[in-house]
Amino acid sequence: xxxxxxxxxxxxxxxxxxxxxxxxxxxxxxxxxxxxxxxxxxxxxxxxxxxxxxxxxxxxxxxxxxxxxxxxxxxxxxxxxxxxxxxxxxxxxxxxxxxxxxxxxxxxxxxxxxxxxxxxxxxxxxxxxxxxxxxxxxxxxxxxxxxxxxxxxxxxxxxxxxxxxxxxxxxxxxxxxxxxxxxxxxxxxxxxxxxxxxxxxxxxxxxxxxxxxxxxxxxxxxxxxxxxxxxxxxxxxxxxxxxxxxxxxxxxxxxxxxxxxxxxxxxxxxxxxxxxxxxxxxxxxxxxxxxxxx
Length: 294
Prior knowledge:
The protein is an all-alpha fold. Helix content is 79%, strand content 0%. The chain is flat, with a radius of gyration of 19 Å. The model has no long low-confidence stretch (mean pLDDT 93).
């Protein structure tokens, strides 16, 4: 019998979707959509339907992640409240829910957006929900680096929903999210190292120690800074974006250096929280800069 308080069935299924993660995914996808067409002629007719399809695909991947991670979720304090970990939902219910969401997502994107966006969304769903969760997470401490590619695709999905093709600027947005993912997630992994060790998940702080992980965070932060300057260098964005990116990057680098110097795990959590704000603000600067250019 679970010691966790019972919640409504609707709330349990809502939790399966990881709404905060999906919200960040949708925001970066929306920015990709709005940047894809200079005059936005092709954006508004399909905005709601494309966002719905991408959201359902992301929620399906999240539900699969819950399903495949239920054993370790029971062992980690951060995830013990999840519906499968508490026994409030069973595996069969979650599997059906994930398949239903994924199927509706593919129908919406394939029939009313375009086949390329449907294919890329499906590959992202499988990449995160199955390949990362079932294999990469256990295979290598570089799991989040390799698996991060699936989580970096939302701006590309938004872009292809409008343009129907993969373009260099869309891949540049993917690169930014891809390089952002390791310092974002490793900061959380430092703070939750005991959880991952208890569950025998080979996260970098568990296999190589916290000092090594701090240096890796600093290294990837420097890569992130370089990646976020590329939109300005390539002519994708202007000085407004560049100024915002420099301010955001200064704060990110300061956190990474503090984490290395002070060796305080609370700073790791501050870096993790800031990294979420950072990504949203960075993409917001891209969008506002696009407005100013128009």
